[in-house]
Specification:
Number of strands: 6
Strand order of the largest sheet: 2-1-6-5-4-3
Low-confidence stretches: 1-38
Radius of gyration: 21 Å
Number of helices: 13
Shape: globular
Length: 341
């Protein structure tokens, strides 16, 4: 991959982003704490935390991660945002905080907005198509239809077309149902401006999101038909499930081989998929998985995770295929990620 070192080029970790004073935060932690490595954002454990600050953070951790991930499309960056939120939260006077959940969401949103603008610059030099980082999600995510729809790969790609502020406002309003005045505090705008931004973002998303709500069962059936056709080398079977104008996006990040530009057209996509798997037939296996709240396929080569394939469905046909091969984006496929609204 060109133009990066470590994780910074893939839309993942990029090092510490700095801790500018936040005028609406009651208190920031000491800079010395961050310079010494700070404290690690706590996670939920069986014994449970004891101090009030840690209890509050752990209680809302899955919510905060979901907010950051939906804004960034990167689990690695979302984890960094949680770390930055914890560093601020650890130094707050809890007596001055009226609503701990709202406060934590506000701080997380501000940190995610800062990082989102940095991500935009990194994506400009990214090798090939940039796709969101897939998450192996727990079954309860699929049971929450609105949450599953909001984190689906198809919707995450739609959110990529919004400006940073539009994305923050849309996520906080449409997904987490925050009031306009709460969102205004989080994004540093007036409630009136937030209402206008929300209206604009809704219209933008409505014009680009999949037509109608697609159930996990529909997605599972389409993927099963797709998998059978690919494994059997059945071009016609693929043409039956692919929309004529289907688009295939591949994300190798310059680390793994992947198509560098979107491939459009059922015939082209079908032949590429069948040809690619045929070459690897002796070593490859496809298996279903729950990714970003919806059924998806995992490709393994010699038993090792190689790529994740998610789809977009419209009117029963696959209109989008999203293949993530960049190994730096597959780390959250090792264990289930808990998401929460």
């Amino acid at each position: 991959m060109s133009g990066h070192s470590g994780r910074s080029g893939h839309g993942g970790r990029s090092g510490r982003s700095g801790h500018a004073q936040d005028p609406q935060d009651p208190q920031d932690p000491q800079d010395a704490q961050d310079a010494q490595g700070g404290t690690t954002a706590p996670e939920r454990h069986g014994d449970g935390p004891t101090d009030p600050a840690t209890e509050a953070f752990v209680a809302h951790r899955n919510l905060l991660f979901t907010v950051a991930y939906e804004m960034l499309g990167s689990a690695a960056d979302a984890e960094d945002v949680l770390q930055e939120t914890w560093l601020r939260w650890a130094g707050v006077d809890l007596g001055a905080v009226r609503d701990r959940r709202a406060y934590l969401v506000r701080v997380t949103t501000r940190q995610a907005l800062t990082r989102l603008r940095t991500l935009g610059r990194r994506k400009e030099s990214y090798v090939g198509s940039w796709l969101p980082e897939p998450l192996l999600t727990a079954p309860d995510v699929a049971e929450d239809v609105e949450l599953a729809d909001s984190v689906s790969m198809a919707m995450m790609l739609v959110l990529e077309t919004l400006t940073p502020t539009e994305r923050a406002v849309f996520v906080l309003r449409e997904v987490f149902d925050l009031e306009y005045d709460e969102i205004a505090e989080a994004v540093g705008k007036s409630p009136a401006a937030v209402r206008q931004t929300a209206h604009r973002a809704r219209a933008h998303v409505a014009a680009r999101r999949p037509r109608g709500v697609v159930s996990p069962t529909e997605t599972r059936d389409a993927l099963a038909a797709f998998q059978r056709a690919v494994e059997m080398g059945d071009i016609q079977g693929l043409l039956d499930i692919l929309a004529p104008d289907v688009v295939l996006l591949g994300d190798g990040g310059g680390i793994k081989q992947a198509i560098l530009r979107p491939l459009t057209g059922a015939e082209k996509v079908a032949r590429l998929m069948v040809g690619g798997l045929t070459k690897q037939a002796a070593h490859a296996s496809l298996e279903p998985a729950q990714v970003n709240g919806y059924p998806a396929l995992i490709l393994r080569l010699d038993g090792a995770l190689d790529s994740v394939m998610a789809v977009r469905l419209d009117d029963g046909l696959i209109t989008g295929l999203y293949a993530v091969r960049n190994p730096e984006k597959l780390t959250h496929m090792r264990r289930e990620t808990a998401l929460h609204r």
